[in-house]
């Protein structure tokens, strides 16, 4: 451990602001890059399964009408 | 082999393993770099930014090369998968380049006394950032995928001249930027206590690039292949 106390670790001899901002923004940007495709996938599956279900109901309705 | 379906299945098996390796490397590397590595006797603690800066620059440049190679394959063989890889490299590379520029700038303030100078190294990396943004914007500007990929592939290939310029900029022109700390051909000038966490962070960010590329390409493939039987089966199974 290079620091005597936790507040030492945060201030880093006056350089804390720069170091922590860099780590914070890097974490933010990288998490955004991870989350974007995951959210897109979830939306895709929700939308497509709704479409699939609708298509099936439409199919069933048309067969109902046909049989009447 | 090489079909979108095959790729989707095999990458799905790799995904959790790459994720575990990536997270472990980045967590270990960050803690080591932030708290355990010794302080630099000239730069103080500000040098700890190196553990973000150098890895992000490496990945930003390698990511561009991946994009340019995928662009060449797209133009020559019109391979679907290469086209998807090329498209997905752009946002990931843009993010990495943004981190590289920002971390460099925030490192420059305490060490050089300024956030930015218009010298060759910094300017060529800024151009790299604009090239990535250019590919994203150009892709969106076209209605159909085929013309969009062709235009983006040409832009990626032309822009690849920037990569050697970035690499040798500190040797060709006078620069505030320090020369490379890591060299493949020579022994590193860095002390092992500082070097090991850096190597771990570089490995970690490369793994993260692979992970991100898998996530983005898989997502893109699903959308493109939504009309096919195998994607419909996936949707039905959810």
UniProtKB/TrEMBL annotation, chain A:
The keyword Iron-sulfur does not apply. This is Heme exporter protein D. Keywords: Cell inner membrane, Cell membrane, Cytochrome c-type biogenesis, Membrane, Transmembrane, Transmembrane helix, Transport. GO terms for cellular component: plasma membrane. InterPro entries: Haem_export_protD_CcmD, Heme_exporter_D. It is a single-pass membrane protein. Its main location: membrane. Required for the export of heme to the periplasm for the biogenesis of c-type cytochromes. Belongs to the CcmD/CycX/HelD family. It comes from the Bacteria. It is found in: Cell inner membrane. The chain crosses the membrane at residues 20-38. The lineage of its organism: Bacteria, Pseudomonadati, Pseudomonadota, Gammaproteobacteria, Cellvibrionales. GO terms for biological process: cytochrome c biosynthetic process; cytochrome complex assembly; heme transport. Pfam families: CcmD. It comes from marine gamma proteobacterium HTCC2143.
